[in-house]
Amino acid sequence: MASALESIQACRHPVVAMIHGACVGGGLELACCCDMRICGESSRFGVPVKNLGLVVALNEMQAVASVVGRANALEIVLEGQVFDAQRALEMGLVNRIVADDAVTAEAEATARHIAQGAPLVARWHKQFARRLMDPAPLTEADIEESYACFDTEDFQTGYQAFLNRKKPEFEGR
Q: What does pTM read for this prediction?
């Protein structure tokens, strides 16, 4: 499973998890590798491996802890309980809860909203969020990269659209 986790985390494009029903064990770990998570009202979550004598591998635990924090990650694995969508929202595990029959439409709408923006900006924001998880102090190069957007076609397109009071039309990259 490590390669699936790493593939999702390494994807340069934002990844939206569409959660229908149970999101348990490896499914929860995979969802935590995504950038956003949308679930239905009846969705259930948990990692109930404590009674199987199994541990959550370090890289899998890291994915969960990076989303919900250390205390909530420990609650999930130590108690081994399956919990509801509202508790998942409270933990920060999901971004939003919608009616069960609206999960697909909401996840697709979210992906469209992301895709309508400047593609390089979405990639940079994903990269920046990942970098901020690293406890090392930001370097001058890290900060300078924040300003690299001014040299892109995406910025020129967005800036011209702003000046012309129009919605920008970015070409996919």
A: 0.88
